């Protein structure tokens, strides 16, 4: 963060300075008292299960120069008594103030902001853009999946005058969130990966998802560019509503950046781009070819040639729990458990069915959350797909995934090859105990199902088993 004073917070948030002087400089912003650094200002956020106002003293003791607090807090009087040498700013809503301050800071930067949104692939695409673009420019990005009203401002605050580009992820599960996030980011580029049945509980329908994803249109920078999926008709609908420049990507021959001659292997894909340039992508999942095409379109939009981009994917590693492949002795685990919706589940099943495996295909299928009234029917659709995906053993986790099991049985999968569990804690030991030599396991479900518990149990058991085998061999 560069050249920011307390007065800038007051200006952007309409805050009231209770303690301190407006000319005081701040070095950064914190929302977590445990990680607060010297010179930062602490925003005391309040949620359903936490209240940052309880940790203001801890933040100050860790080096914060002061805090931004919500109005009508009973603690204000005590803070005025105990923190008389720090900065104290009162605002109506600390979460809104965080975004308003981020908006002011973003507008002072000359950095080009790239917003990545869509139903699937946001984090992987964001990380791929960073991975490729850093070969040519100074670039920063959102940490992990920092894509909400807290994560987006924090990403902006971590950007400084040395960064030519900042890649930010925009997520949503309720109407109006993309509008607000894009208002804060004011993107120079927006990358639209795809639109599918996700967050239906909050957005109501696929039309609601489409309308929500389109809310960035009114908040693009002048001469902003949209990077859109040419094979997704809902993305094309949004692109048609956008008045600026659109660069499309996909397999469709009408796309500006298009893939052809796609060949799969057990490590990833090799394909041609615009019939000339060869890309080697070391990531499982055909959907990741789309993500790579989006990256190429984005980097090409800033003047980097396709020829220079194509060899930059070779050492890319996906974010954790996104088609993450690990080998534990004779067991292969593909952990795609970060999140799930019907389209990403379908894509994972398609990829799994195409892999060459030495033994059984084992699927650990967790609930797809936030589907609202469509939950049962969409889970049943997945159950029908499982039979054609050549799954040998199915473990379901969660109440909705029982519909997956029921439909798999109805479509011909033997009942004895299916086991259902309510939680990942219940499933982890049982799944591990049932695995055999040369099994390949796909773990897929929504983040709330905590399927990493299953992955960890498999890793722990088979890693220890291999250590014992190695020790015995060394004794021979």
TrEMBL record:
The keyword Cytoplasm applies. It holds the Pfam family Mur_ligase. Its EC number is 6.3.2.10. Signal peptide: none annotated. Residues 25-105 form the Mur ligase N-terminal catalytic domain. Residues 116-298 form the Mur ligase central domain. Keywords: ATP-binding, Cell cycle, Cell division, Cell shape, Cell wall biogenesis/degradation, Cytoplasm, Ligase, Nucleotide-binding, Peptidoglycan synthesis. GO terms for biological process: cell division; cell wall organization; peptidoglycan biosynthetic process; regulation of cell shape. Residues 322-447 form the Mur ligase C-terminal domain. GO terms for cellular component: cytoplasm. GO terms for molecular function: ATP binding; UDP-N-acetylmuramoyl-tripeptide-D-alanyl-D-alanine ligase activity; UDP-N-acetylmuramoylalanyl-D-glutamyl-2,6-diaminopimelate-D-alanyl-D-alanine ligase activity. It is found in: Cytoplasm. ATP binds at residues 118-124. Belongs to the MurCDEF family. MurF subfamily. Involved in cell wall formation. Catalyzes the final step in the synthesis of UDP-N-acetylmuramoyl-pentapeptide, the precursor of murein. This is UDP-N-acetylmuramoyl-tripeptide--D-alanyl-D-alanine ligase.
């Amino acid at each position: 963060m560069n050249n920011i004073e307390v007065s800038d917070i007051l200006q952007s948030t309409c805050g009231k300075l209770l303690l301190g002087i407006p000319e005081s400089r701040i070095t950064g912003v914190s929302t977590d008292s445990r990680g607060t650094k010297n010179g930062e200002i602490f925003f005391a956020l309040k949620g359903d299960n936490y209240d940052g106002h309880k940790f203001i003293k801890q933040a100050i003791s860790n080096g914060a120069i002061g805090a931004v607090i919500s109005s009508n807090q009973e603690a204000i009087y005590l803070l005025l008594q105990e923190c008389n040498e720090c900065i104290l700013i009162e605002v109506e809503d600390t979460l809104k103030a965080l975004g308003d301050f981020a908006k002011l800071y973003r507008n002072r930067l000359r950095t080009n902001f790239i917003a990545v949104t869509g139903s699937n692939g946001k984090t992987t695409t964001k990380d791929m853009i960073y991975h490729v673009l850093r070969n040519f420019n100074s670039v920063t990005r959102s940490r992990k999946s920092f894509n909400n009203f807290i994560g987006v401002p924090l990403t902006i605050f971590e950007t400084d005058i040395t960064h030519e580009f900042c890649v930010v992820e925009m997520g949503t599960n309720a109407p109006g969130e993309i509008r607000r996030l894009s208002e804060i980011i004011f993107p120079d580029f927006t990358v639209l990966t795809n639109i599918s049945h996700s967050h239906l509980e909050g957005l109501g329908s696929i039309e609601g998802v489409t309308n929500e994803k389109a809310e960035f249109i009114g908040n693009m920078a002048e001469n902003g560019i949209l990077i859109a999926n040419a094979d997704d008709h809902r993305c094309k609908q949004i692109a048609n509503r956008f008045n600026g420049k659109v660069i499309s990507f996909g397999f469709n021959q009408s796309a500006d950046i298009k893939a052809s001659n796609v060949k799969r292997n057990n490590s990833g894909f090799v394909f041609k781009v615009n019939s000339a340039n060869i890309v080697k992508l070391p990531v499982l999942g055909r959907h990741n070819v789309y993500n790579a095409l989006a990256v190429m379109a984005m980097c090409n939009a800033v003047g980097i040639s396709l020829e220079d981009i194509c060899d930059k994917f070779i050492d890319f590693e996906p974010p954790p729990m996104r088609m993450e492949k690990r080998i534990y002795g004779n067991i292969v685990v593909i952990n795609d458990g970060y999140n799930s919706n019907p389209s990403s589940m379908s894509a994972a099943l398609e990829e799994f069915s195409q892999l060459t495996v030495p033994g059984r295909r084992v699927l650990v299928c967790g609930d797809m959350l936030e589907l609202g009234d469509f939950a049962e029917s969409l889970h049943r659709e997945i159950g029908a797909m499982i039979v054609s995906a050549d799954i040998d053993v199915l473990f379901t986790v969660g109440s909705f995934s029982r519909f997956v099991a029921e439909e798999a049985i109805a479509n011909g999968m033997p009942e004895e090859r299916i086991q259902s569990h309510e939680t990942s804690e219940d499933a982890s030991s049982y799944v591990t105990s049932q695995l055999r030599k040369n099994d390949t396991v796909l773990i897929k479900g929504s983040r709330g199902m905590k399927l990493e518990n299953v992955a960890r149990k498999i890793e722990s058991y088979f890693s220890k088993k291999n250590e014992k085998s190695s020790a015995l061999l060394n004794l021979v």
